[in-house]
């Protein structure tokens, strides 16, 4: 697939920003600790579901030290409405324990320190750095991976290479914005199975849309020869 020029990549970001000016982190949080825990909880679960269980979770365990000392069965009770709640209860308790013992309960603003925490991978660390600390990062989730490669912002086969390609091809001061815009676009328009290409704000640039259009144009040309 042909990728877009850097100039056209920036133009796509302009279109997405105009279409989704409200795009931002859907995980409601008061501080970086809540954000970190909620990103970990959001794996294979909707942000809406995590937001629904978090008020009680943080009312009872507002800090890392408190969460580290929590009864695991109580955590399971609070989290029971989200997927893999038993595993996640154990994971956030372990995460909080290391956060408390190694970092004094303060979420580090360093990538290497973040990924050294239990259950924190590249995407989670990048979300915390971008949303919690205002760094320019482009965490690649399933929506960002699908939409970026479908539009032609990049042409990669895995999440890591997609992230690295987007860092090269997008304006350095718009990476976090791109992350949020691509997620909103993936949820609202560029569906995995049935993308709404007819109303897509990027259709003038999108490689996915252009391919069938080129095929149809070629077919019409052959028909009239």
What would a concise description of this structure say?
By secondary structure, this protein is mostly helical.
List the topology elements.
Blueprint: H1 6-19, H2 32-41, H3 47-60, H4 64-68, H5 72-79, H6 85-103, H7 111-115, H8 122-133, H9 142-151, H10 159-169, H11 175-188, H12 207-223
Helix pairs in contact: 2-8, 5-6, 9-10, 9-11
Describe this protein's structure.
This protein is mainly α. The chain folds into 2 domains: 6-23 and 139-218, Helix-hairpin-Helix base-excision DNA repair enzymes (C-terminal) (Endonuclease Iii, domain 2, Orthogonal Bundle), CATH 1.10.1670.10; 32-133, Hypothetical protein, domain 2 (Endonuclease III, domain 1, Orthogonal Bundle), CATH 1.10.340. It has 12 helices and no strands. It has helices at residues 6-19, 32-41, 47-60, 64-68, 72-79, 85-103, 111-115, 122-133, 142-151, 159-169, 175-188, 207-223. Helix 9 (142-151) crosses helix 11. The chain is elongated, with a radius of gyration of 20 Å. 35% of the residues are buried. The model is unreliable at 213-225 (pLDDT under 50).
